[in-house]
Amino acid sequence: MGLFNLFRNDQQDQKLCKLRDLIALAYADGEFTKDKRFIVFSILKEEGIDIEELPKVYGNAASIRDAYPTKEEDRARYMVQMVSLMTADGECSEKEIKFCEVIAKKLGFSAEYVSKVVAKFSADMMKVNENRAMQIVMSYIANGGEMK
After folding, report:
1. CA dist 124 to 1, 39, 115, 116, Å?
2. Is 147 within the bounds of a domain?
3. What gap in Å lies between CA 129 and CA 82, rounded to an integer?
4. Rounded Cα gap, residues 148 and 146, in angstroms
5. Which of 66, 106, 115, 118 has the most other CB atoms within 10 Å of its CB?
6. pLDDT band, very low/low/confident/very high, at 74 (cuts 50, 70, 90)
7. Helix orientation angle between 130-142 and 111-126, rounded to the nearest 10 degrees
8. pLDDT tens digits, one per residue of 76-110
9. Helices within 87-129 (DSSP H only)
10. Residue 148 lies inside a defined structural domain of this protein
């Protein structure tokens, strides 16, 4: 296997890993809402992940290896995408928060980093929809997240 194929497989592994994480987070609270579907499909489009990859994840999630980006910018974007999905329905369940904290650790970030991303996300949303932003923050805190 040549160097090009190794690089190509790593990219494919990263895409499948992200798809697996998105689907797991979307279902973490038991509800795959319309808002969550919109975020998932937006991220897939943004990342160039083909919707045809979905069957590889369903029923095979345990066989998909962790393949996280190494560049800080890519790791930060990954975390922002996870938080945007977690907050898509205006609620942050305890399971979603814990899942985001696990992903943050795998990306080399602390649980506090998740809080910072939620705070930044909510502050940006405050400009558009103050009630929704407050709902997200209150839900995040009520379900175990800590705002630092």
Report:
1. 46, 17, 14, 12
2. no
3. 20
4. 6
5. 118
6. very high
7. 160
8. 999 999 999 999 888 899 999 999 999 999 999 99
9. 94-106, 111-126
10. no
Q: How far apart are CA 51 and CA 62, in angstroms?
A: 19
pTM score, two decimals?
0.85
Residues making up the chain, counted from first to last: 148
Distance from C-alpha of 146 to C-alpha of 61, rounded to nearest angstrom: 29
Q: In the structure encoding, which two tokens stand for residue 114, read together? A: 């998740």
Cα separation, 112 vs 131, whole angstroms: 24
Return the closest-CA partner of residue 88 out of 130, 135, 127: 135
**What H or E segment, with its residue span, contains residue 57?**
helix 54-57
State the total domains in the chain. 1
Residue 19, domain CATH = 1.10.3680
C-beta of residue 72 within 8 angstroms of C-beta of residue 38: no
HSE-CB for 128 with a 13 A CA cutoff? 7
Helix axis angle for 72-86 and 34-47, nearest 10°, is 160
Using alpha carbons, select from 61, 131, 140, 47 the residue that is nearest to residue 98. Answer: 140
